[in-house]
Amino acid sequence: MVDESTLDSLGIQQVNDTATLGSLGLKLVGLTQASQSITSSPYLFTSIENAKAFSTSGLTASLNCRLQNGEFSCTNVYQKSPDANPASSQPTPLTATDPISYILVRAKPGEDIQALKQRLEQALPGTLAVTQAEMASRTRSFWVRRTGVGFILGLGATVGVIVGVVIVGQILYSSVSDHMKEFATLKAMGVSDKVVYGIIIRQALWMGLLGYLPSLALCLGLGAWTFQTQGIMILITPLTAAGVLGLTIFMCVGSAMFAIQKITRVDPAIVFKS
Fold this sequence. Notes:
Blueprint: E1 2-3, H1 7-10, E2 18-21, E3 24-27, E4 31-32, H2 48-56, E5 59-68, E6 71-80, H3 113-123, H4 132-145, H5 148-178, H6 180-188, H7 193-230, H8 238-264
Parallel strand pairs: 1-4
Antiparallel strand pairs: 2-3, 5-6
């Protein structure tokens, strides 16, 4: 089984088509959705026996252990069998020398997950049992903290915030400069600074809202497109959307401070100048 967005990489079009992986043939029996990573090659879902055949076809594995620098380490060594025919390799059961990274365990309904984790770790020394949520958290933490993906995305978001503040600040500053006499007239009429500042802040709020709505629609459309074409889901939850809206409003109101500083120094007497 593969993600439906990765069919082209295998050169197949639909279920029951056949393809070649390495030197072995495979038959597609099902499709998955939203299982493709943005940073890795296509995932294939198959039985352990089939996975072993695909990864070690025509090879025999042996365990090589040695004591080095006071530490005992073991590695798997693969050797090509003289009489092996990769094209006719058949799946074989998993052995103790075969490398494996993760095993999926399905708990019974009502099972105490924490107790199950402890029993698994006691029965299989040297292993770590984690829940689905813990696995997802560990995966996110790895990509964000231990690779360049998190840094690049964070840097892009930071640059976006800075550019947004500068652009909105320039627009509001130009607007205030073009209507300086109107603001001076309000101050000459005795309108309080609070009211004048409120006008600029409302402009900033409208700019943020009118910029946020089409941007959200664009992101939702982009997410639908990436899911349909690449199998990559861009998840925008209501909480995330609300957080981005709050950040956008904060950026725009903060940008309004540049324009407010200009009005603070305006002299109402300019109304009477030609």
